[in-house]
Amino acid sequence: MPAPPSEPRVAADFSASIGRVARRIREELGLTLADVAEKARISPGMLSRLETGRVTPSLETIVALAEALGVRPALLLQEVGDDEGGAQHVRSGQGLEVVRRGTKRGHTYHLLAAERGPRKVFEPFLVTLTDKSEVFPGFQHAGTEFIHILSGEIRYRHGKESYLLKKGDSLTFRGNIAHGPERLVKVPIRMLSIIIYDGESS
């Protein structure tokens, strides 16, 4: 019978898991160490050590870091103690809510699954858009994105092209080209957004 893991090993795994997720979210949002450290009221050096698993964050630091990244604290803990493999069941309305940079509180992005390994393969979001007056920034990220309109009507820009998408329509595009909603034609808009990283993101 194998011996239980030592306390230092458990603490190291805990720190590495939180740091890995925090860095992944920060990079996806296009934020620097200094940006997040200032909002979380910690030094950039401390944040760097946290992201690389060299320090174990307190509960207070985890909460502050989550607020700085615009996510719930539970999202930072998603890989702690998880085994590889298995299935993830997310019930209706229970996806982790993520705040995307440049969007208002009235719009929601619910993360429907989270990768447990060191490499992010894909991210599925259920997106709800409600405010016709909002001006969206151009999003850019690694990988390929697929969106499918569940309800409403939206004009969506990708690079120099603009597409009018209605219920049942889909659009697939490269994420490294600036893209995003151009005009919300008929709200509320609900759409499924799946980002596939194809080994580009670690």
Chart the SSEs and their pairings:
Blueprint: H1 7-28, H2 33-40, H3 44-51, H4 59-69, H5 73-76, E1 96-98, E2 108-111, E3 122-129, E4 144-158, E5 161-166, E6 170-174, E7 179-196
Antiparallel strand pairs: 1-2, 2-3, 3-7, 4-5, 4-6, 4-7
Helix pairs in contact: 1-4, 2-3, 2-4
- The pLDDT mean sits at 79
End-to-end gap: 34 Å
The Cα radius of gyration reads: 18 Å
Silhouette: elongated
Low-confidence stretches: 1-7
Number of helices in the DSSP assignment: 5
Proportion of residues in extended strands? 25-35%
Task: Describe the main β-sheet briefly.
Answer: 7 strands, antiparallel
Helix and strand succession? HHHHHEEEEEEE
Oligomer status = single chain
The number of E-state strands comes to: 7
Helix content: 25-40%
Counting helices, strands and paired strands, the structural category is alpha+beta
Key features?
202 residues, alpha+beta, 7-stranded antiparallel sheet, 5 helices, 7 strands, 26% helix, elongated
Written account of the structure:
With 202 residues, the protein is an alpha+beta fold. The chain has helices at residues 7-28, 33-40, 44-51, 59-69, 73-76; strands at residues 96-98, 108-111, 122-129, 144-158, 161-166, 170-174, 179-196. Strands 1, 2, 3, 4, 5, 6 and 7 form a 7-stranded antiparallel β-sheet that branches. Strand 4 and strand 5 (161-166) form a beta hairpin. It is elongated. It starts with 6 loop residues before the first helix and ends in a 6-residue tail after the last strand.
